[in-house]
Predict the structure.
Amino acid sequence: MQIEIESTILTVRLWHEVIERNRYSIRIHIALILLAFSFSRDMHLLSLKTLVGYGFVLTGCIVRLFVYKEIKSSHQVPAKNLVILHHFCLTAIGFGWGLYWFDIHEWYGRFSIHGLFAFLILTSFIAAAVPANSPRPTGYICFATTMAMLPIYDFLTQGNYESKIIAGCFVFYVCFNIYQMRISYQTISKSIDKDLQINNERENLQTLINAVPGYVCFIDKNLRYIMVNENARACFKLDEYIGRSILEDNPNSDFVNLTKEFMAGDKKTTTSELKFETNPGNIFSFVSIQKIQEPQGGAVVVAIPMDELIETRKKIKDQEAKSFYTSKLISLGEMAAGIAHEINNPLAIIMGCSDQILRVLKKPELQLDRVETLTQKIQSTVERISLIIKSLRILSRNGEKDPYLSFRIDSLLAPSIEISRQRFSEVNIKLDIILPEHVIHCYGQEIQLSQVMMNLLSNAFDAASEGQEPRWVRLEIKSEGKFIDILVQDSGLGIASENKDKIMNPFFTTKAINKGTGLGLSISKSIIEQHGGSLTLDETSTNTTFIMRIPQAT
């Protein structure tokens, strides 16, 4: 089927080549008629035979114009009747010139050498007007056969030396023309085949880029459009894009500036996220530009809209925040027993002090010093409970929208330490805290950073719980120039080497089922990076050590 289609296209293209050359052929025939008419008039050869020959030639040319007009308007392979009419026209033209040569032949004499030369020269001119006007040699054969009537007639009737020369020369010339027509036909066919191949490749490329769910365009060295896909054509109103420069619409846009800078540089590819001003509105897109190798030059630009991606990112971020909040509540739930113990102990102290105050008040002699001491103890215990509740509120609240402020590093650590202290002591895990000698202020969202701190301490607690005695967790603060490093180290079994590269990945966890979500470290890392810091695993340390680096307040 594909071969038939290509053969049809080839035939149509060949006929259109013939049509384009038709003017050339008609001009030669008309010029020869005028020349022959002038020659015949001077030689007094305007016989009926000559006039009839002129009539055949003119009729053949006029009818052929009609045939070519029909072929050109149809854009299809010519109908059989049109092809037959075309060959009939060529035969009529050949017959008309043949009648004229009979008169020339008779005027010079049958065996005149001048007649021989005139016949060959003028026949060559006429023949030149015919081969270019048929896609295959068949049309020329029709013409040549008719023209050959005279030399063939002479050869058959006379059989003399001169007639043999004329017949031989004419046959040689006809064969030579047919051979050249075949070469010309093959050359034209190869050229058309190459054009068809290029067009097919272009159509395939156009189909391919139209299937891309984004905007694709090819530009040349001068930043003019060569090809665009349907999405780009519709979105950027590029109905007439061939030869149009990207500078015409918005010469100062981010896309134009990026493209100009890239084309002037040495890089072969570049990517960026840009905002496009389009017909429906601004579109945020991921843009990739790739240079096309010489000699063509230019570049291909692919832009993928990111509106849906941005919305998806936002949903993922919101979901991660919710998951982190859930993970945080799970951690607080796991600490609930320790927190209850932390509050029950102070309540028991308050209850005991209250009983002692009541007994003192019942005595005849009021012991004010004793009452004051017990009251102060109650007050300090209440403050202790208040601090625990405050720490719970800090660690359970969502501080994502809090402003960035400067605060002391000890206020960042206090909530996590206050909540964790009792939990650590109950399972005999020692909590060491190493603070710097001078006061350090950090900068950021205190609630968010406190929750990250709580997550790191909770992970260290879980790891140390599975380790051997002595079990400990060490918290160390270091000032490193513009940053503060908080090191959280534990005495656990460590992290397997194959898991070190994945430990920060979302949903990756080494804990048992229902013991962790795998989001704590990944979201903690995201929070710290939003503060301009970093959260890393120190692979050089013997024990598992996480380094939380946050900006130091200036």
